[in-house]
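Quick question: what would this complex look like in 3D?
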Amino acid sequence: MQVLSVHSWPQAIAHLDADAFFVSCEQASRPALKGKCVAVGKERGIVIALSYEAKAKGVKRGMFVSEAKRICPGIIILDSNHENYGLFSVRMFEILKRFSPKIEEYSVDEAFIDLTGLRRLYSCSYEEMASKIQNAIEKELSITVSVGISITKVLAKIASKYKKPRGITAIPGNEIHLYLRNILIEDVWGIGPNTASLLKKFNVRTALDFALKNESFVKKYLSKPYIQVYNELRGKPSIEFIEKISPKSISKAKSFYPPSDKESFIFSELLKNLELSCAKARRFSLAATKLSIFLKTSDFQMFSIEAKLSSPSAIPLMLTENLREVFLKIYKPELAYRQTCVVMSGLTEKIQYSLFDDISKIEKIISVYNAVDNINMRFGRNSVHLGASSDSYSPKERTLNLPLLNIKV
DNA sequence: TCTGGGGTCCTAGGACCC
DNA sequence: TCTGGGGTCCTAGGACCC
């Protein structure tokens, strides 16, 4: 068997993955749910997270709620509560920062932690460090996590998945091959179904098969992201460790049922998405220079269009006309739509005004939106919204109708 | 995996410039 | 107005991730 790296710990990267995160947060908030079959995902009828008890009964992610109930009678189905999960996430990352200053917040329930060189500081092995992290999170948040440690990010991902829940797996450089031979190629982070089926044509079935291919083969058939994965599997760090968290784009999508062809309704849905993404952008003090919209038809076709903005903005009132313009370019009255999406991109930190803008007018609008943000923070998301997006709120939410802004009371 | 929502990065090809 | 070569910027679309 070939050795892929001679050194055991040239660097130590941990990957932490919370176990059944959404459900664990629900169980931590309501201990009566512990040990039971629980799923999250009531609102759209699809299971998006499961307790280990429910997984054991054969319920799977993506399954219809009705199907889950049939397989697992008595399963408790909950609405998702992303704000709550976000709070757990923030606290989990705070705990990690006590152990190492170099953290990559990869997703709401996953992080990379650079532990290189910390064995001396804590006078313990990397596994023992992982165990301390695991215990701190369990004690303070009542949720469990699995940790993998290895010499690259891809290998650390494989390690954290190797044993779950509450697992700790360390893959030193000189033992890589012992683990990779048990990992199917499609289970490697970064290898999707397309690339997996391409590789299978060349008899690559496991991660080890891939890691042992010639570099010339990889360069001939695959592009940069896959070459990085290949290098990382062989123990050569190639994927950057990203500490910053500023988003590159902000989007909001919302499906509705039944599909609709009504222009005013679809536009109001878009406008609501615009308001929510603008609010998020303002929270990060970011402004967009590009605005795109996506319309999904009832048969899952996507139509999209992008508009360049004359000046960066995160103010719906300033963007409504741009939105309407691009919407009318791609909206087709003969089609029925089931989802709209707004993407703000080209995000900049500083908002620069062009010489031709009426600065005092813009500042007034911005001060109105500061007030709007404060009200929404106190009374709930989108309590105040544009009059034109009213159509996408239920009648009981609509009590005060002003021409420009609506205030939900 | 039959269809929820929020992201990132890469590549090919066109427009435009010298 | 037939025709080189090289560079940059931008966009659309693909693939993948949680």
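Answer marked as accepted. DSSP finds 15 helices and 15 strands in chain A.
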